[in-house]
Structure formats: structure tokens, C-alpha cells
Amino acid sequence: MDALELSTLGLNILLGLLILFYVFRIVITWYPQVPLDKFPFNLIAIPTEPLLILLRKLVPPIGGIDISPIISVGIFSFLREILLGQQGILTMIN
User: Fold this and answer.
1) Is 90 helix (H, G, I), strand (E, B) or coil?
2) Cβ count within 10 A of residue 34
3) Which residues have CB under 8 Å from 94's CB, separation 6+?
4) Helices H, strands E: what count in the chain?
5) CA-to-CA distance for 59 and 27, rounded, in angstroms?
6) Any transmembrane segments, and where (predicted)?
7) pLDDT tens digit string along 19-67?
8) Of the four, 3, 27, 29, 81, which is 20 to 30 A from 20 by CA?
9) Is the CB of residue 26 less than 8 Å from the CB of residue 55?
10) Phi and psi (nearest 5°) for 65?
């Protein structure tokens, strides 16, 4: 396994985990009483909150519903497909 394949695998795992974290974050938003500062919820809140803060500044809640986690899933899914998909940039290099 060369360096490009190893970095591609690492990027694939990282983007997959981020997508999973943001999906968990979407589910957590259905339960507003969940304390995001307590274990185990802080394991999801800490890595996802920086991007969500930025997205909340750009896209305000629509009808009182925060759609920033949904946008985040879309962003990371798009990046994963463009870079690592069947005809992705890094896939075509290999």
C-alpha cells in the first residue's frame, strides 16, 4: 500500500465519520432536552459545533428549525463523492 492509497483510505474514513457525526447531530436536535455538554453527547457536539456555528451565521433557522446539520451532511457527502467516489479526483489518480 503506497502513500496515496493510505491517505485516500484515511480521508475516506475521516469523511465517513464526520457524516455519521452530523447524522447523529440531526437526531439529537429532535430532542432539545439532551445536554450536549454531558458524556456521551459531547463526543458528538465537540467535533461538529465549529462548522455548525459558521453555518448558523450564514443560514438562519427556517421556521424555527436549524438546518445547519443537514447542510453539513450535504457538504461532507459532496466532498466525499468528488474526491473518493467512483469517478472522484483521488480515485482517478490511482
Assistant:
1) helix
2) 13
3) 4, 5, 8
4) 4, 0
5) 19
6) 12-31, 58-79
7) 999 999 999 988 989 999 999 999 999 999 999 999 999 999 888 888 9
8) 3
9) no
10) -110, 125
For residues 25 and 32, what is the distance between their CA atoms, to the nearest angstrom? 11
Buried b (16+ CB within 10 A) or exposed e, 43-70: ebbeebeebbeebeeeeeeeeeebbbbb
- The answer to whether the beta carbons of residues 43 and 20 sit under 8 Å apart is no
C-alpha cell at 65: 428549525
Phi, psi dihedral angles at 9 (to 5 degrees) = -60, -45
CB 73 within 8 A of CB 60: no
| Helix ranges (DSSP H) in 1-94 | 3-29, 42-58, 68-84, 89-93
Cell of 35: 445536554
Q: C-alpha grid cell for residue 22?
A: 452530523
Residue that has been written with the C-alpha cell 436549524 in this structure: 66
Q: Which residue's entry shows cell 447523529?
A: 24
